[in-house]
Amino acid sequence: MRQIEIPDDFDLGKTASCGQCFRAKEIENGLFRYVSGKYVIYIKDLGDHRFSVSCTDKEWEKIWTGYFDLERSYRDLYLKERRKHDFVRKAMDFGKGIRVLRQDPWEMLVTFILSQRKSIPAISKSVESLAERYGHLMETDHELLYSFPTPKDMADATVEELQECGLGYRAPYVRDAVEKVLSGSLDLEAISEYSDADLFEALQTVHGVGKKVANCICLFGYGRMERVPVDVWISRTLDEDFDGKDPFPLFERNAGIIQQYLFYYKRYNRV
Question: Which helix (H) or strand (E) holds 41?
């Protein structure tokens, strides 16, 4: 482990538990594990903006700087956006330290298909089942785990086998995603060049991908920070805390980030 400095707001626990990723976890007191493709990092907050990390300088710059969105100042964003609405200020104060992760689009496509009508623990369980069955073993100093399977890894997966991983009615949707990506009818790299609106529409060509799931993939897989996924928690906060009015146009290109603060606040302050 080596030490680095991150001179910005960054809370490992809040970032791991705000509904955007399903493989991040605290493996021991204060030590968090995050997984991106074939890469795994163990990271711990040492205080005073110092963190211990398990990777090399090169890997940190190549993989994790972008993954943790470290080129964006969340402190500046906090100071700017919290002034625009009293409830948003409350949510941002509560969720200070959340960062919106830039994750693998394929993993986001599959995991947010799985997210429909599932709790976060149930989603995580299905994701790990998929990884164990179709991914590749990765051995670290702390644990044995599996990479998230690529479309090629899942090429021969049947609907029945996917259902055995706890996918239920979502199994045919994941099978369709595999087929569309492997056939090239959905090129996840090429669509990264699309406008927000065209990207949103392209993702919905996969069976089972509706507006909410497509917006999640846009936000967490492609870094489209203006996209706002509306799930049960966001619907509830719009009704209860914004009088049914849409506040997100106030925040323009940061609307998706604000959505994460609101989601986190509402989920952990249930009444």
Answer: strand 39-47
pLDDT digits (tens, 9 = 90+) for 119-146: 888 999 999 999 999 999 999 999 999 9
Which residue range(s) make up the domain with 29?
2-94
Q: Known catalytic residues?
A: 212
pLDDT tens, position by position, 87-120: 999 999 999 999 999 999 999 999 999 998 778 8
Cβ contact 198:205 at 8 Å:
no
Q: How far apart are CA 35 and CA 145, in angstroms?
A: 10
Number of domains the chain is built from: 2
Q: Which long-range contacts (CB under 8 A, 24 or more apart) does 36-44 make?
A: 36/63, 36/64, 36/67, 36/103, 36/104, 37/104, 37/107, 37/147, 37/148, 38/136, 38/138, 38/147, 39/63, 39/64, 40/138, 40/140, 40/145, 42/1, 42/140, 42/141, 42/142, 43/12, 44/1, 44/12
Residue 236 domain-assigned (yes or no): no
- The H or E element containing residue 83 is none
CATH number at residue 184: 1.10.340.30
CB neighbours of residue 193 within 10 Å: 9
Same domain, 60 and 130: no
229 inside domain: no
